[in-house]
Amino acid sequence: MGYVTTKDGVEIFYKDWGPKDAQPIVFHHGWPLSADDWDAQMLFFLGKGYRVIAHDRRGHGRSAQVSEGHDMDHYAADAAAVMEHLDLRNAVHIGHSTGGGEVARYVARHGEPQGRVAKAVLVSAVPPLMLKTEANPGGLPIEVFDGLRSALAASRAQFFLDVPTGPFYGFNRPGATISEGVIRNWWRQGMMGSAKAHYEGIKAFSETDQTEDLKAISVPTLVLHGEDDQVVPIDDAGRLSVKLVQNGTLKTYPGYPHGMLTVHADVLNPDLLAFVEGKPLAQAA
């Protein structure tokens, strides 16, 4: 574990586990979480002999709670600073939710131009654009995101209980098996970060049009999405993204929620490994 200082002076926390000569798998977390959200994947890939890396986005987790730069350009540049500091090459970049947006911008603007990326994975990811616009009529209206901002500003602590208790993991669905530990861990990660970073991050993940980022990605790209994602609807994200990247594969999961990497790690991890190893993915149940 360590810190890297970006060009604009921000300290970014990162974890770097496993053999330094092994192929690196780099994980990019979602809003408003931290590198800890990848525990199940990092331990899994570490056990398979890979080098695993994850960092906390600026304003999140253990990274500096700076006032500025809570946008996709800075997120990608910060990720690039970590990759360059560790001199990672032939890396597989896996991003969840907002982290998927970070992966798309990093790979398009930094990773591929520098020759550092082997493959990319977008899991329940926000690209190409979440916001409803004239050019994106299937998106969500701005009032949805204004509501998120209002709830965060009114009581971040309560809001950060409501999200994981409800739609994030699908715990609001009839018959769902609810994990109090998962809810508390989501809350813990969220409350470690900066309220300002989280507030401004809503604009970053909802209003950033990443169509051109996706079009620029030529490395093999796997898009994974739950069909019952209540946070980032599959029809407005996963199904569109795979059509825009140059070499994409889509796998969907009936009934799976936004946070499927945590509550269905037993299914997702083998699929991630198969893609990394260039093997066929299992058929969806």
TrEMBL record:
The protein's matches in InterPro entries, at most eight in alphabetical order, are given as:
AB_hydrolase (IPR050471), AB_hydrolase_1 (IPR000073), AB_hydrolase_fold (IPR029058), Epox_hydrolase-like (IPR000639)
AB hydrolase-1 domain: which residues?
Answer: 24-260
Tell me the leader sequence span.
Answer: none
> Do the record's keywords include Oxidoreductase?
no
Q: Which UniProt keywords apply?
A: Hydrolase
Q: Which Pfam families match?
A: Abhydrolase_1 (PF00561)
Homology family: Belongs to the AB hydrolase superfamily. Bacterial non-heme haloperoxidase / perhydrolase family.
State what protein this is by name. Answer: Alpha/beta hydrolase
Tell me which species this is from: Ancylobacter mangrovi
